[in-house]
């Protein structure tokens, strides 16, 4: 098959049409440059609408199409490439959504994403996981074992996800907040903050955090009645209470959050 393709190409090159194609190729912009130009255009369009500086990063994610953060006056947006050539109404919705979490804008964005889903790459969670460094066994807590036990006990072994300690954070000074766990629907990977891998952190507390992230696998983010995204819908929170050490874990967190915030984690 590959050989046949090559042959065709060689034939074409000797013809005048082939020469024209080759000349055109030599002036065609590189894909990266083209992307840069489109990204700048998108930044400019958003800047006009948001009346603030905007920095856009374009990605090829398979689940999370858009995230944003504000750093003082600057809006930082991470967007799927489908937004590069989005029509004005979508750009306006994007700006409204980022600025005020506008429910109508959110619905419009969802529709746009749905219409463009053909551009979303299909990657299996297993393929995504191959690129991650999985470290489920800590010095004090074995996340793999915790996960397996919870899976058997609460989910009949049906949770098809992987688990690992997250990488050591780059900032080592005391934190103001800590994200103890996360779940990525893209890779189906649960990440647990390495600060939890300390002898003073009781096993039931780590279990509780893992249990919470497992529930994210069961209850996907959905839209509430007010149109806003609901990460922890009521049924999620109800289910969470079934954890055997629920109140004990909550009490431990109240007492010891400071300890977790100050934990020094080395890579
Ligand atoms: Zn959560």
From TrEMBL:
Basic residues compositional bias, start-end: 1-14
Region (Disordered) residue spans: 1-26
Protein name per the record: M48 family peptidase
């Amino acid at each position: 098959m590959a050989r046949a393709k090559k042959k065709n190409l060689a034939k074409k090159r000797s013809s005048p049409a082939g020469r024209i194609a080759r000349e055109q190729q030599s002036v065609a912009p590189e894909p990266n440059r083209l992307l840069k130009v489109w990204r700048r255009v998108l930044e400019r369009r958003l800047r006009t609408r948001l009346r603030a500086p905007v920095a856009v990063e374009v990605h090829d994610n398979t689940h999370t199409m858009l995230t944003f953060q504000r750093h003082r006056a600057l809006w930082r947006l991470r967007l799927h490439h489908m937004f590069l050539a989005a029509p004005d109404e979508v750009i306006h919705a994007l700006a409204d959504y980022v600025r005020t979490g506008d429910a109508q804008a959110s619905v419009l964005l969802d529709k746009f994403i749905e219409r463009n889903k053909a551009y979303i790459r299909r990657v299996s969670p297993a393929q995504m996981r191959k690129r991650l460094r999985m470290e489920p066994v800590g010095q004090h807590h074995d996340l793999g074992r915790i996960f397996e036990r919870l899976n058997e006990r609460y989910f009949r072994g049906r949770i098809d996800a992987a688990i690992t300690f997250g990488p050591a954070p780059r900032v080592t000074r005391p934190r103001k907040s800590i994200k103890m766990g996360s779940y990525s629907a893209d890779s189906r990977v649960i990440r647990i903050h390495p600060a939890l891998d300390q002898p003073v952190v009781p096993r039931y507390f780590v279990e509780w955090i893992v249990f919470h992230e497992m529930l994210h696998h069961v209850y996907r983010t959905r839209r509430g009645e007010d149109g806003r995204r609901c990460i922890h819908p009521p049924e999620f929170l109800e289910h969470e209470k079934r954890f055997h050490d629920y109140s004990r874990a909550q009490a431990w967190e109240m007492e010891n959050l400071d300890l977790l915030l100050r934990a020094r984690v080395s890579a």
